[in-house]
Structure formats: structure tokens, C-alpha cells
Design goal:
With 177 residues, the chain is an alpha/beta fold. It has a single domain, classed as P-loop containing nucleotide triphosphate hydrolases (Rossmann fold, 3-Layer(aba) Sandwich). Helices cover 45% and strands 23% of the residues. It has 6 helices and 7 strands. The chain has a 7-stranded mixed sheet with strand order 3-2-4-5-1-6-7, sandwiched between helices. α5 packs parallel to α6.
Length: 177
């Protein structure tokens, strides 16, 4: 199989993951093919609607935005032939959305593995943003532990497929892989 063009960018909240992913993707957005930004956020309340609107305004115009909170793999299939570069922002909300949609753990992990396979095989470059949530205390509630575990396993799956993993710390990338 050809070399993966997948970069996983992870780190804590407000560590600069999204803006760094966008800047890296913009460097590869040339030629007739397009730059895509796949957003997984859902406008579930006023605060989230304001966050989404802020991100829309700040995103460079060169990106065609796809808002897809659940069917990320299907969205990839729709852009495969047209994409030069893709940013997925973010796996954290995607896993949360799948959980809220009532998907079971096995189904979520199978979808994460499918996404990893699709991104590894893609001809376009992809920059995938995800939070690193396993560095803190063990959540007290079962739902919090389930989320932490599912996101951690998803990050591992995407990380295995990635050619590069970056950990963002205070706005600075550290190369992990």
C-alpha cells in the first residue's frame, strides 16, 4: 500500500489543534482539486451555535465546508475524486455524536476502524483533529469513562493509520510519530 497522507493532530482543549490543521492543509491546497473541511459539530444549544458560527467566520474561504456529525465515512466517499486536502474537525465530537445517536461500542469502534482505513487509502492529504482526553483523572460517571475509552481507542486506530502524529501543547506541535 502507498504511503499514508494522514496526519493526526491531538492535544488538549484550546491547544491550537484546529488552527494548526487548517494552516497545514492550506499549504497543500493547490491545483484544480479542492480543499475540504469536514465539521462534526452539531448546533445543540446557543453556546454551540455561537462556536460553530465563530469557526465558520474564521475558516479560510479556500475550504469547502461539509457539516456531517455522524456519517463521516460516507462524506469521504462523496469527495474522494475532488479532494486535494481534507481537515476533519473533530473526532472528539464525532464519537460523542455517535454515542448520542445510540450506537453501541462495537459499532462505534468498527466505524472508527473504517475511517482509519479510508483515510490511509485516500489519495488526498488529510489532517484529523482529536482531543487527548486520557491524560486526566478517571471520570466518575460510567458515561464519561465510556466516552474517554471510545475516543482513546479511536485515536489509536487513526494513529496507526497515520504517517504522522502531532501533539499540540500551548500552540506548539510536538512530533510523536
Amino acid at each position: 500500500m502507498a504511503q499514508s497522507h494522514l496526519v493526526l493532530i491531538t492535544g488538549g482543549s484550546r491547544s491550537g489543534k484546529s488552527s494548526y490543521a487548517i494552516s497545514l492543509a492550506a499549504e497543500h491546497a493547490t491545483g484544480p482539486q479542492r480543499a475540504f473541511f469536514l465539521a462534526t459539530a452539531q448546533p445543540v444549544d446557543d453556546e454551540m451555535r455561537a462556536r460553530i458560527e465563530h469557526h465558520r467566520r474564521d475558516r479560510p474561504a479556500l475550504f469547502e465546508t461539509i457539516e456531517e456529525p455522524i456519517e463521516v465515512c460516507a462524506a469521504l466517499a462523496r469527495i474522494e475524486e475532488r479532494a486535494a486536502v481534507l481537515v476533519i474537525d473533530c473526532l472528539t465530537l464525532w464519537i460523542s455524536n455517535l454515542m448520542a445517536a445510540g450506537r453501541g461500542d462495537d459499532a462505534i469502534l468498527a466505524e472508527a476502524d473504517r475511517l482509519a482505513h479510508l483515510l490511509r487509502a485516500a489519495r488526498f492529504r488529510s489532517f484529523v483533529v482529536s482531543d487527548e482526553v486520557g491524560s486526566g483523572i478517571v471520570p466518575m460517571e460510567p458515561l464519561g469513562r465510556r466516552f474517554r475509552d471510545l475516543l482513546g481507542w479511536t485515536n489509536q486506530s487513526i494513529g496507526r493509520a497515520a504517517s504522522q502524529i502531532l501533539l499540540m501543547v500551548a500552540g506548539h506541535p510536538l512530533r510523536v510519530k
